Amino acid sequence: MKRLLAAALIAFCFLGLTSVNQAAAQPASYIFNISFVSTSPDAANAGLGGYDNWYQWLYRVDVVPGGTAHNGFSHFTLELPDCYDADLLQVMALTAGANGLPTNGSNLSGLTGDVFRQYSFVSGYDGSTESWGVKWNNIGSDSLDMIGEYDYFWFSAPIDNTNYLGTGLVKYGNNPIYYDSVLVPDCPQCHHTPEPASLSLLGLGLLGLVRKRILKIVNKKGTV
Question: CB neighbours (10 Å) of residue 23?
Fold first, then answer.
């Protein structure tokens, strides 16, 4: 009987330790904090796409405690105003970077997160979230999936002002988590360099006004 009790006690302790180890191995629930960090002049891209002045927009994504279930990170998306058409977004894609790898190698070339991670960058419409803007795709084996981890993301836009609150999306596969009230660039205004055709039309319009003014003066003299 004593042997049976001892065996039962050993089995109970073993099962208890196994359960504790399994519970400890489960990842803690977490959510993401998306923060706008700063803008800085991007002289390396001056004139890109016909815009005189460009500015790098820097964001940080942190893994913080919270949530009710284990999350994951495969994509990070920022929604932008509709005024950023597909052509402008494609130009902006040339300036984007993350975690120490800006494609233009300018202001943020030495900036990394807690570890080195790799991302690709796309722009336009994201069908899985029905959002319009810019998106980074995690393409490495390491992901943002532990509390305390963080990465930096950036792109350049032809404006340094923001009064516009967009939506940040972090998703694992096709399961997006939405974060509202993220500062994103306003619509570019009064920054665009007119194309040659536009300048020609403007010149013709001015010539027409001058000619009309001259004819008016001549006609007045003729009637005096």
Answer: 8
